[in-house]
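User: Can you help me understand a structure? I only have the sequence.
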Amino acid sequence: MKITKVEAIYVRQPEVKYQCDSGQDALIVRVETDAGITGIGEVDSNPMAVKGAIEGPFSHTTAAGLAQVVVGEDPFETEKIWHKMYRANIYGGRRGAGLHAMSGIDIALWDIKGKALGLPVWKLLGGGFHQRMRCYASSLFGATPEKTGELARRYRDQGFTAVKFGWDPMGQDEKTDIALVREARRGLGDDADLMIDAGLVWDAKTAIQRARAFADYNIFWLEEPLRPDDYDGYRKLSEATHVRIAAGEEESNRQSFLDLMDRGRIDVVQVDLTRCGGFTEAMKIAALAWDRGLPVANHGFTTYINVTAALHWLASIPNALICEFVAEEETNLREFLTRQKLRAQDGYLAIPQEPGLGIDLDEEAIAKFRVA
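Assistant: Let's start by predicting it. Here is the structure, written out as C-alpha cells:
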C-alpha cells in the first residue's frame, strides 16, 4: 500500500465570533492510498498556516511541503514517516504550525492502519486500559459569575461529574476572578470536580494568590495561568500551592513537554494530539510523564475527530486521568462535520471499537463549510 494524496481541508462557520473558541473552524487532513483506504486527521492551529505547511511546494531539503514528503510512502511506516516529515521541515517545523501539520497527517496514517487491519487504533497502540473514560464538560465562562453558575447547574444536570470553565472574563480583577469560581462551585455543588482554566492571564505572584483563593472552593486543577514559556514561573507556582497545576496544550513535541515537566514542575500534563505530533509523539510524551509519576489528560476544543483520537490514546496509556469534552452549545460546527456524534453517558465516553479511528467525515457538510 502507498500514499497517493494528502489534502488539507479548511472548514469554517459563516460567522466566527471574536472569542477563544477554536471550534468555529477546523483544518481536516485527508490521506488517500492506492488500496482505496482513506484516513482522516485534524489540526487545531492556525488553519491556513497549517494548510500551507502541508500543501506548499518544495523549497529545499529542510523546508518542504509535507504532502509531497509522504506521497509514495507506506502508511504503515508511521515512525519512519514522522522523522522524514520532521527532517524535511526542520527549519519551520520543529515547533508550532509545522509540527501541528505533522500531527494531522500522523493521525490519518494511524486511521489507515487500523482500517487496513480491521482494528481500532487503541489496539494497534497496545492499549486496552479502559473501555470508557471519565470526561469533563469543557466550557468558556459565562459572561458574568451568575451566568457561569447557571451553566454549571446545566452541566451537572446533564450528568457530568466534572466541569471546566475558562478564559474571559477571568483575569480582569481579583473580585471578578473569585466570584467566577465561587458561582461555578455553587452551581456545580460540592460533589463534582471543578477545573479552572485561567487562559494565560497572570504573572507567577498573582497566580499564587489566585490559587490560594480558589483553594477555598476545592478546585480540581488550575490550568494555564501563565504564559507558556514561563517555566520558572510555573515552578514557583507549583511549589507554592497544593492545588494541581495543569498545562501543556500550547506545547508541541516531547522536548517542549520536558521543559514544562522538569522546569515547570506541573502536576497534570495536557496533550493535544492535533498539535503535539499525533499518536506517534503523544505515546512518547505519555511515557515521559509516566516516568515522572505524572497523570496526563487530553486537550481538545475542536471537532469529534480530535476527541475520538484522544480516546484511543487515553485507552492506550497507564496514566490517563480524564478526557476533555466540549459542552459549548452555541459552537456547533463539530455537530455537522462527522457522521458520528459523541455523547457522554453519566459523565463517561465510550472507547471506540470500530477499525481505525472509528469516525467518518460527513462529505455533504464538508462541502458546505469548506473554504475555497
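Now, to help you interpret it: The mean pLDDT is 95. The two ends are 30 Å apart (CA to CA). Let me know which part you'd like to focus on.
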